[in-house]
Amino acid sequence: MSDASAEGDVVITGTRLQRPNLASNSPLAVVDAAEIRYQGAVQIENVLNRLPQVTPDSNENASNGSDGTARVNLRNLGSNRNLILINGQRMLPVQANDLNFVPTALIKRADVVTGGASAVYGSDAISGVINFILRDDLEGIRTDVQYGFAQHTNDNDYARRIQTNANYRLANRNVLDGQKLDVNVAFGTNFPDGRGNVTAYFGYRDTKPVLQANRDVSACAADPAGFTAKGNTDLACGGSSNNPYGLFDPQTGPSADLGRFNNTKDGARTWVPYDSSFRYNYAPLNYFQRNDTRYTAGAFAKYEVTPAIEAYGSVMFMDDHTNSQIAPSALFQGYTYTVNCDNPFLSAQQGNILCGSAYGTSATQDLYIGYRPVAGNARPRRDDLRHTDYRFSGGIRGQIADGIRYDANALFSTVLYNETYENDIDPSRANRAIQVVNVNGVPTCKSVVDRSDMQCVPLDIFRYNGISDAAFNYIYAPTSTRGVDKETVLSGNISADLGTYGVKSPFADSGVGFVLGFEHRYESLEFKADALAVQKGTTQTSGRFSVNELFAELEVPLIENRPFFKDLSVNAGYRGSDYSNLSKIVSTYKAELSWAPSSDIRFRGSYNRAIRAPNVSELFSPQSNGNVNAKDPCANDPGVSPTASLAQCQRSGVTAAQYGRIAPCPSDQCTGRGGGNPLLKPEEADTYTAGVVLTPSFIKRLTLSVDYFDIKVKGYIGSIPVSQTISQCIATGNPFFCSLFQRDPRSGIIFGDQGYIVSTTQNTGSLRTSGLDITGSYTQPLGAFGRVNIDFLGTRLRKLVTEPLPGLGSYDCVGFFGPTCGQPQPKWKHQARFTWSDAASVGTISLNWRYTGGTNLTNNSTIADFASDPSIINARIKAYSYFDLAGTVKVQKGIVFRAGVNNLLDKDPPLIQSGLLASFGNGNTYPGVYDAVGRTVFIGLTAEF
After folding, report:
1. Per 3-state DSSP, what percentage of the chain is helix, strand, and coil (rounded to 5)?
2. pLDDT tens across 751-779, in order?
């Protein structure tokens, strides 16, 4: 971990200019190979997520709803607003970026530019660029092997108490799981005349899963308890009303207004009023860390034919296979099931409640059912996710005259996505299977009798554990989807250092530098689903666009090597983009200034304007329904009034007849409809940065930089969180938010097959973030005792302001977490590493301190946009400090052994009510922000020959 502001770099990420002593004019942090080794990281997203400029995104700890990818989110502006590069070229299509593609063992360094780089690399780089510089010049063989695991002591007395109170199984006191094996081999050779090199690599990584059952913080779903007027004072183990015994909510017939009923726990065919004692603890079988198997392979080659022609190219491949796992499927509430009153599985007591006088006749009644089979042949739901990625690049480059170089290249990438959702109950089949009649004393599906479905197997849901293996095989119906994302990039540029020809300022020694180039990019998306997935609501889609771009960059040293002007230079850049799906050319540009009065200090500042067109996924991704963490304030359990008034609920589409009879979203999981929007317009972004870099000659080996950043995106392309839509409609009655409600017209619920909240992509208001980055590095020699190095990187977040819609007010998420703001957004976050090296450079010991400041719950704020059910027990997440210890030993020349422990003190993550979690929350916490699985241990060996 270091700052890359020191002069002397030939190539700097954030500019296409190639000149000696060029320095970055934007905040630029570098994660080097040593930092990756000290962290024992085999997933590069875990390294990036520790940076204070990064808000965690998709990662290995997400399960329910995960797409299996790993992404990075700079400045919390979204993973689609930063660009991922490999050796200066786009990695994959932006919408399909996956950091699993990066061969971690080959990384020399990762340059993280967080000041905007759209004029240089394209409009996708609004929040910045992550450029992975890979080793492509090996001479010999390099092998790297690492093994690691998680070790945790479950001693959270509070979590274990609430689990004991609920009679739930406790996690074992001491667990060891989540094993990771990473094996990499790379080899390379130079051509005999030294004019080129070929480097190839192969990698294998295997990650074992961690179940939520094995951590006391996640072993049950945490629900609010201890209610007071100011909010809940306690937590309790909750669960889902879709329970193993079977819930029934008649929508027609004599009991339509009498609430919900449940099968008794003793297996008898008897209904009793539903209460919370029937809830199912869905947490234990959920993954806290997904299993994953990844293969990578590739090669890089370059050969200088003449000084004017160097041919180069690369081929890269990845196959990544992972599974998410969650609790067994169910006949879920929200889908309307039909039961015939002469069903032989119905007891007289059940039949009379459901059908009244029609019991025993062929009459039918409609009802919601919440029956989750967990006994017999029931199995957890598994989402089988596979990504197979191919990337090919090639080109020629060279120097055609003194100070004049060119580079022409082509890049082709394809991402294949295959998903199979297993062990899910098909509601259509289940609906046929519960419509059963007696045929000569044999329960038989009506669909078999009328020959509409001869495969139907009767389903006995009117008692606990009544489902046969044959019935399981019938109702379990896997669905499959596949996607193909493609990108083609054709690019060429010419760069010049005109100092060779005397084009320079009379007050400067260096000449004017410029780059002029052209880029053509084509992107396409295709998404297909099988017949059953389509029947269950998945939408097939496809789309494509192309863009032609002209770009230019100019660097002008104005004054050099004069009193108070060691260096004064300006830099400007422009990119004009002609998108096939837009009616006019959009312009992106930048201006930068650098002034170094002396070698001890340098001031830098920049302005970037970007106009980002929506990517192919934002435009064309399929619209579908999915579970989201939210509560319906218009819903209520029997005997409890809704928290919202009738007038408030009517704003969201509730009728007077429905009020007081709407079922709550099971497990605080309402339904949101997400997906693309082909009517999206471009968004605009303005980025300002200003900073100072100190390298004082009177304190040798010290580098310190302080940078201010301010980024505002207008017409922000995103989706409005479901929880915010609910709270805003209920609290303010704003017609925009209330129009996003699509309540089930029969019952008023916002879950199931007909009730949902619209949360598709759209041009919203704006998002603005600002703050300070502070970076420092210092080395102190200790003579015969070696040396100590200190690296520090911290961010003070000043603003994170969201304006949901223009003119409708805004809110600032700095210092908050919760349903509206999402993951914790602390005011201060830092990482500090202290490393000792011996005098002979044989061994090192390194201690890392990670700090995340405290945050407050949005629900408790007086800000109108945050208004929701308050909570006392989760009112604040305290500040967190983690300590990591690692060391390396040079066993012999070319062989280095390493070992380390992350989260040395085995600190638990915060235990948060599950209904308060937003995106990337899992297991009652935020695993990307806090260490979810506890202490992790690793050992590794690198050998080079």
Report:
1. 15, 50, 40
2. 988 899 999 999 989 999 999 999 999 99
The CA distance from 704 to 34, in Å, is 20
The SS3 of residue 785 is: helix
Q: How far is the C-alpha of 924 from the C-alpha of 156, rounded, in Å?
A: 13
Which letter does DSSP use for residue 450 in this model? T
Note whether 445 and 460 are within 8 A (CB). no
914 in Cβ contact with 668 (< 8 Å): yes
Closest to 769 (Cα-Cα) out of 842, 716, 846: 716
Token pair, residue 760, equals: 């598709």
Phi-psi region of 44 (alpha: psi -120 to 50; beta: other; left: phi over 0): alpha
Q: What is the pLDDT of residues 145-186, one digit of tens each?
A: 999 999 999 999 999 999 999 999 999 999 999 999 999 999
Q: What is the pTM of this model?
A: 0.91
Question: Residues near 472 by Cβ (< 8 Å), separated by ≥ 6?
Answer: 373, 376, 377, 378
Count of beta carbons in the 10 Å neighbourhood of residue 20 = 10
Residue with tokens 């939210």: 630
Asked if residues 63 and 290 have their Cβ atoms less than 8 Å apart, the reply is yes
- Which pLDDT tens digit goes with each residue over 654-701? 999 999 989 899 888 899 999 888 889 999 999 999 999 999 999 999
Whether residue 543 is predicted with pLDDT greater than 80 in this model: the reply is yes
Neighbours of 559 (CB within 10 A): 18
Residue 130, SS3 per DSSP: strand
- For residue 67, give every residue at least 6 positions away whose Cβ sits within 8 Å of its Cβ, in sequence order, or none: 58, 385, 417, 419
Cα(619)–Cα(527) distance, rounded to whole angstroms? 13
Number of other residues whose CB lies within 10 A of the CB of residue 563: 8
| Residues shown for the chain | 945
Task: Check: CB of residue 284 under 8 Å from CB of residue 239.
Answer: no
Nearest C-alpha neighbor of 80 from the set 906, 571, 668, 680:
680
Greatest distance between any 2 Cα atoms in the chain: 106
Run of H or E residues at 169: none
